[in-house]
Amino acid sequence: MKQSMLYPRASAVRRVVDLGGMWKFCLDWDGNGDALGWKDGIPGDERIPVPASFNDFYTDKDIREFAGDFWYETEVFVPGEWKDMHIDLRFAALTHRGTVYVNGQEIISHEGGFLPFSARIDEVVKWNEKNLVVVKGNNELSFTSLPAGITQTLKTGKKMVRPFFDFFNYAGIQRPVKLVALPKESIVDFTVNHRLEGTTAYVEYQTVTTGEHPVTVEVYDEAGSFVAKAEGAAGTIEIPQVHLWEVRNAYLYRFVLRITEGDAVIDEYEEEIGIRTFEVQGNRFLLNGHPVYLKGFGKHEDSDIVGRGYHPGVIKRDFELMKWIGANSFRTSHYPYSEEIYQMADREGFLVIDEVPAVGFFESLVNFVDAVSGKSTNFFERDTVPELKKNHLDMVEDLIRRDKNHACVIAWSLFNEPDTMSESATPYFADIFARAQELDVQKRPRTFAMELNSSPEKCTCYQFCDFLCFNRYYGWYLLGGYEMQDAEEAFRKEMDAWLAKGVDCPFVFTEYGCDNLQGEYKLPSVQWSAEYELEYLKIYERVFDSYDCIKGEQVWNFADFQTVEGIMRVNGNKKGIFTRQRQPKAAAYYFKNRWENLPVDYKG
Ligand code: EVA
């Protein structure tokens, strides 16, 4: 049976202990931690916080740029009262891969740095005592990792990563680790799908448990009042006079699942779920049958000091800023985010395009420049593709199993800017898209974010999409500076070419934008100034407003973020509408004015 992806929550039966805090930490400079037996205890007494990226704590550049194995250690006390339960160590993420050892025994290895996994430790646990937990992580990039890149060794013997993507390769135990005690017979999976008839909702549900005892599901409203009940591992719950989950006007029911034997509760688990439908109809998005227009951002999990680490304060601030500016959506570019972000999006009524970490599938160290060059790298012709695809399929599966019940998740983005110019991409795409369709009972629309090389003339894969997502930089990477006066015409020409192909689906701009250094003003404008950015955004506004099929604008990026160093980046990517410290730049006021005045059903 597949590992449970349910969020760890305590209940009448389940127990959860957060293991966040200072853990021992060391870098394996020579790659011989295994040989030296570090699984039984790591050397030194260095400590760093968990969760966080390790990269930005230190003043030593070799540590920030470290590529290889890194080790963590802590002690976990497991209460004797839990002897009859299953005990899991649940990692919400370990970037990009790693192995967990408990009391010197290897428990589990996991590939992929943005989705959860659990190490079941029943067999090795010492009850009512401290248990030694050692984690070996690794942050190297390759042609089979998601995200993709390469790892090279410098003449000095030091290793470094060369990402095929434009964000810093932060690593470590970046999300919470929890000790979870579960009953031996437990609920491992729960799935809902919603159907609306007038004012009544029919919630079709399925549960997977590890035993044979009966399952019940109870539903409560936000006031805590009982609404409905169903019995059986699968069934339909009728909710008359349903209070629907709407964009920026959320409503969450509490679903309480129990496995029972007579009056005894064997397992209990609950989830807050918004009831809504979402579909593509022609070139429109329909939420609960009504047209909706997406306004918002491509984002990153990225902030000072903790890097890509889970930071509830930053999450809260980001949602407050998104509300202030009048946004209603975002894309989890370029990887699945922390689960708590989707929980907040559910609560705040944001629409989320949920992305797998399939980024860098275009062999380039400056992909943002090469993306507009017409260049093909025949990425899907390499002999590493079968292993890459296996990892990709695993991550699609884990993503959908983790996020499928979130009302906020309206679509799956299955790649960011892959190389689609060669026919060799199509069988790969066919399998990834088919798998997502098969796994998601809600059949959410699927897409991928296309770079300019994926043009109407050359793209071999757009036909797999239920709606098209464009990352476009007319006026920045091409036709920038004084040439920007030609950008609008080129942009419209491309839109017309897509429509001429007979494509009838919504178009969303998942990226557009230009770098702006905070505080840089210049008349007449120059690239990087606030004035230039405004002229650029006006072009996009005119184009967006004149094509009926364009049903969403998600500017790149919500905030300035860290990248590798280089001549194309000024200590990071500065396309943020907010600074990395989450204060508004000049363009923020432009968007606030536009988005607050666009109706939710704009062009509906
Ligand atoms: C950029 N362009 O150049 C962005 C990247 C992003 O940060 C892209 O999808 O096409 C990428 O990751 O600013």
Explain this structure:
The protein folds into 3 domains: 15-183, Galactose-binding domain-like (Jelly Rolls), CATH 2.60.120; 187-273, Immunoglobulin-like (Sandwich); 291-596, Glycosidases (TIM Barrel), CATH 3.20.20.80. The strands form 7 sheets. It has an 8-stranded parallel beta barrel. The chain has a 6-stranded antiparallel beta sheet with strand order 3-2-4-9-6-7, with no helix packed on it. 18% of the residues lie in helices and 30% in strands. The chain is of the alpha/beta class. The chain is built from 9 helices and 30 strands. It has helices at residues 61-64, 312-325, 339-348, 367-370, 385-403, 425-439, 487-500, 530-546, 586-597; strands at 15-18, 21-27, 47-50, 69-78, 86-91, 97-102, 105-111, 117-120, 129-138, 149-153, 159-163, 177-182, 187-197, 200-209, 215-220, 226-231, 234-239, 253-261, 264-273, 278-281, 284-287, 290-291, 294-298, 329-331, 351-355, 409-416, 446-450, 468-471, 507-511, 550-556. The longest helix is centred in the middle third of the chain and has 19 residues, at 385-403. Helix 2 (312-325) packs parallel to helix 3 and helix 5 (385-403) runs parallel beside helix 6. Ligand EVA binds next to loops.
Features:
binds ligand EVA; Immunoglobulin-like; TIM Barrel; alpha/beta; 6-stranded antiparallel β-sheet; 30 strands; about 600 residues; 8-stranded parallel beta barrel; 9 helices; Jelly Rolls; single chain; globular; 3 domains
